[in-house]
């Protein structure tokens, strides 16, 4: 079964005269595949991502993760790794404890959670920094910690909302390359939200283009950008 199978997601904000933020959005992401949800600001990308994550209740539609129907489950029971734009880390916790937080919340004993966190930190090349406070990190390091935290959920699905948008161009280019290699290593399904065509092309094998709440085009990244 695919890492993600989202079927006919619809969401309207503000009643009948409100905004149709998502309309009949269907998306699948296979294990090991990276899909970019691409479109201009306000087209509904974050709404779709939040519905999949369980942070927003859709008016209609269903979400399956790894073959399991999670439509009615709260976010923490969906086992989805999340990286949002403003990667809020816990400033009072060490890097390791930030990454171990998810496994701890799931009820794993401290040593097991710490071991999972160390593994995730190694994946993002931060194995040495576990005991640092997150306030001592550079922007790029902090973003990698956020990624490690998402990876430590050990889920079949990773959701990233504009993961590089808060970084300067140099860091963005550096992390773009790292992310691609990382996605290949972890083998999870990745759904990436971005308004940046270059980012979509660099990171995703498949692209779904969104306009005004609907997916208007979907296909291999190279084909989508050849015939815009
Ligand atoms: P994107 O992620 O592509 O920028 P969003 O999903 O954030 O788009 O927003 C889609 C539309 O829904 C926009 O018009 C936005 O203003 C509106 N919207 C998003 N969240 C809310 C909300 N909580 N209440 C009302 N309108 C919202
Ligand atoms: P993004 O840039 O990821 O689309 P936004 O900055 O648009 O996110 O939205 C940030 C938060 O504000 C979200 O929780 C969203 O639900 C809420 N929001 C966005 N647009 C509106 C709106 N028109 N009315 C009320 N809340 C909104």
TrEMBL record:
Keywords: ATP-binding, Cell membrane, Ion transport, Iron, Iron transport, Membrane, Nucleotide-binding, Transport. It comes from the Bacteria. GO terms for biological process: quaternary ammonium group transport. Residues 4-228 form the ABC transporter domain. The keyword Ligase does not apply. GO terms for cellular component: membrane. GO terms for molecular function: ABC-type ferric iron transporter activity; ATP binding; ATP hydrolysis activity. This is ABC transporter ATP-binding protein. The chain holds residues 5 to 232 of 333 of the full protein.
